[in-house]
Predict the 3D structure of the following.
Amino acid sequence: MKSYLKLLMVLVPVAILAGCSSPKVAQKPAPIEDRTASAATPSTASTPATSGVEVLAAPDKGNFAGEELVDPLKDATGLLAKKTIYFEYDSSEIREEGRAIVEAHAANLIKNPKLTVTLEGHADERGSREYNLALGENRAKAVQQLMQLKGVPAKQMDVVSFGEERPVDMGHDDTAWAKNRRVELIFK
Amino acid sequence: MLRKMMLLLLLGFALSHPVRAALTIEITGGTAGAQPIAIVPFGWDGQDALSTDVAEVVAADLHRSGAFAPLPKADLLSQPHEGPQINFADWRVLGAPNIVVGKIRPSGNGYMVQFQLFDVFKGTQITGYSIASTAQDLRRTAHQISDLIYEVLTGKPGAFATRIAYVTEVVTNRKSRYSLNVADADGYNPIPILHSPAPLMSPSWSPDGKRLAYVSFERRRSEIYIHDLATRKRDLVASSQGINSAPAWSPDGQRLALVLSKDGNPEIYVLNIKNNSLQRITNSPSIDTEPGWTPDGARLVFTSDRGGKPQIYQVSIPANGVVSKPQRLTFEGDYNAHGVVSPDGRSLVMVHGQGNRFRIAVQDLSDNDLRILTDTRLDESPSFAPNGAIIVYATEVNNRGVLAMVSLDGAVRQRLTQTEGDAREPAWGPRIHRIKP
């Protein structure tokens, strides 16, 4: 995080200055152009940039100054490590705990436009298999809708239902059933 | 189009020698209203032991129907094999109005199977046949004999020379292997027709018994295939966005009712198999699924939660007319699904849920009287025998998925237990190779 701040400290003043000048710019757009002009001047010459302009090393997969960044999807301590949302019987309503997980993943998906997720819906074994296939889809779509509401583009999400066909717990009691009523977030 | 599968294994139908059933029958119910009948072990002229005890298969078939109570072998006074050998006066004492006798003799490369059905009190023959058979077909011949006896005594067709399709799941080292299988209706001769690492659901027979439609997740989502049993060719017939499931073959074999969620949520459609045209049947934000045809092909029953929880509805689909407004059929219980109309159009069998308990129930469509047929708690997927007298379904026993059958009057129950894994999703196939009486 420190490295980000460092970068920001260099960039923000430039942005602020650039920003500040324009509203008042009823009269003077000049400062921006001047700034650009002065920054550009050294590069028009064939010699490499010198005189006070510090060229930073190109970022290498987000690593700055030796600090390693953890893939947030694999960080066991973060909310993003949770990739399963659970549901009540015969319901596709996302409860509070699930909502937090969905929102965290939504934010992460927005930040990473190339990341795609498959929302896999499931149901417990009670009742008919075909109805449960539809119920699983309802649950996955509920998660999709919440994510879309939070700004995740549709093309980053995919919905599939397995109904009761792929339980995580093969038991026949309330504990097993609760574990099977879920939507799983599958990242490739 | 033929699709190549990595783990697809198709086995041949021919069996060169008898195979012990991988599905064993266990009859668990009583036969209070069943009519006694004497079925005498058939005579055998040949040298080697026969692969099948024909009389025993016939007795088991008739008992399973709920209509007959074959006398125990120990009670049989003597073992006549044809008419002249029967002393009717003796047999009248036992109280069984009918007696079946028969004999088998070698004939060419196979056998000649003869049976006769007599009226014990009149001492006259009701019917009798001589049927050519082989070692491989002997069991099927026995089932055909059961069908003939059943039909002439009850006036209704039998359902013994029929087959069931069903799905099995075997878990090894936490990995599942799913198979679609076809077996005789009494559980014998199970033959896998498809193996897959991904789930299979909802097999549905074509009316001519030559093809099965089913749902496969082999490409990581639900899709519908039509599978030709003889040629082993498969056609992918539904692969739209979302759910593709619940195929149900129309009685005329021309159409497939199915469920697609491509238009926003699961709805019922009817696909014309020849020209691929699609007719939309339902249009509501609720879940609409599990279409089932009435025998005249003019109506569909289906499951819908448009009223809050799943219940069964009916809709008319006239050939060139507008689909009618769905009409609710079930009002008892908080969950009714997987409705199947009986072959005579008079009853509706379903999965009937009350709280956590799901049982098979049948509703009379004329007076809406509902009868619960089972006493287990996780029952599903009922399917009628083609004569409407027996229902096969799936249930859980000792944490295993097994198939079971119950007669329409609820009197006779059986369980079919397979040697490994779970069995589910049974579909009773149509009668084939029927000998007309």
Q: What stands out?
A: The helical segments of chain A are 2-21, 30-44, 96-111, 129-149, 174-180. The radius of gyration of chain A is 25 Å. The first strand of chain A starts at residue 84 and ends at 86.
